[in-house]
Amino acid sequence: MATLSPAAEKFILHWGEMGPKWGINRSVAQIHALLYLAKEPETAEDIAETLGLARSNVSTSLKELQGWGIIRLVHVMGDRRDHFESLADVWEMFQIVMDERKRREIDPTMKLLRECLTDIKHDSKAPDHLETRLNAMLVFFETMSSWYTQIRLLPQGAVVKFVKMGSKVGKLLGVKAG
Fold this sequence. Notes:
This protein is mainly alpha-helical.
């Protein structure tokens, strides 16, 4: 069992509070935070004991985090138990989470919008403004999805530089911020 410093405990509790705001279970977020801060891979038993969680909750949460691709199963020489570790590179984690959110949320929304627009063409009772509004939403999602795909193809270092440019991007485009 890991002994947590006050700063680590504070971060883990905060990450757990943020989880539901991101659509993630509190326990899943806390386990991710613990693994992110851990110097060495942790066993499910140690995670459960450190965080005071039921072993079954930890097991389910670890599977969810593995499904997101932000933690992985590792083996430790001389120990037959499964150990888990988080990705350490926050940029890589962010990209993986964004990829998953796009796949789970954005792509199905675009598919639904296309279906709705097809349905409207066969619905004489649909209000006139409905097609315009849904099409505007689809164009927005398609534009952002295309932009994300282009950015995602860039090397991580280029993305970091781009993000750190901040207001310089506006100046480059000849647009004043604010």
